[in-house]
Amino acid sequence: MKNIVVFASGSGSNFQAVIEAAESGKIDCSITGLITNKKSVGAIEKAGKAGIPFKIMNPSEYRNPNEYAKALSIQLEKWQPDLVVLAGYLAKIPASIIRRYRDQIINIHPSLLPKYGGKGYYGERVHKAVLEAGETQSGCTVHFVNEVYDDGPIIAQKKVKVYPDDTPKTLAARILKEEHKLLPSVIQKILNQK
Ligand code: GRF
Fold first, then answer.
1. Of 109, 127, 143, 180, which one is the catalytic site residue?
2. What pTM was estimated for this model as a whole?
3. Is 109 an active-site residue?
4. Helix, strand, or coil here: 92?
5. What is the mean pLDDT, run by run of 10 residues, along the chain of 194 residues?
């Protein structure tokens, strides 16, 4: 069985979707760990309930970026991921980790990349920008992670309609529902090819 490690900084609803897909056998994998950069987030609670080990690693609590990268690398060696999944992770992954796990790290983003991605485009900001630009469609993207935010090769996208009376919240919710289907299906596809 393949191993995956998830990184999450928030409520962890995508993480939960992956947990459920693994528990129901939709994805044939073991989630060997969760890494978060924040102490009290929903993702930790979800890991606890599912019996998944977690580690809180806040880059600012290390002496320097190298120390953080080293600690992260040691942790990943322990959990042996075939695939690393960033599911709402809001800290930068050190370049050394990206090099070590080249084409083995994926991220989910709530827009149709390359639109509305990159530094500063996270959370409701993404949807606010989409609405301000008058887009009639948006969606979500799963892509490989490289050294630049939201820039790596796109693996899959799902489009959703944008309605005239949408707010960032209603649009985010519609997209999130699709994220919960897209992410597990992409994980399964990638693991099948390994
Ligand atoms: C999702 O919208 C994801 O696309 C983005 O961060 C959000 C995480 O939400 N990268 P959740 O913590 O999975 O609910």
1. 109
2. 0.96
3. yes
4. coil
5. 96 98 96 95 97 97 96 98 96 95 97 95 96 98 94 97 98 98 98 90
pLDDT value for 40: 86
Pocket of ligand 1 (CB under 6 A): 8, 10-15, 87-88, 108-110, 140, 176, 179
Instruction: Give distance in angstroms: CA of 46 to centre of ligand 1.
Output: 14
- Angle value at C-alpha 163, between 158 and 169, nearest 5 degrees: 80
Ligand 1 atom closest to Cα of residue 9: 12
Residue 194 neighbours by CB under 8 Å, 6+ apart: 2, 82, 83
Atom number of ligand 1 nearest to Cα 172: 2
Distance CA 167, CA 2 (A): 39
Is 142 buried (19+), middle (13-18) or exposed (0-12) by CB count in 10 A? buried
Compute the distance from residue 86 Cα to the ligand 1 centre, in Å: 9
Would you give the distance in Å from CA 124 to the centre of its chain?
A: 16
Q: Which of 86, 108, 124 to mutate to test the pocket of ligand 1 (most atoms within 8 A of CB)?
A: 108
- Would you state the pLDDT for residue 132? 97
Give the per-residue pLDDT at 124. 94
pLDDT at residue 119 in the model: 87
Ligand 1 pocket mutation, candidates 105, 158, 176, 178, criterion most atoms within 8 A of CB: 176
**8 A C-beta contact, residue 158 and residue 182:** yes
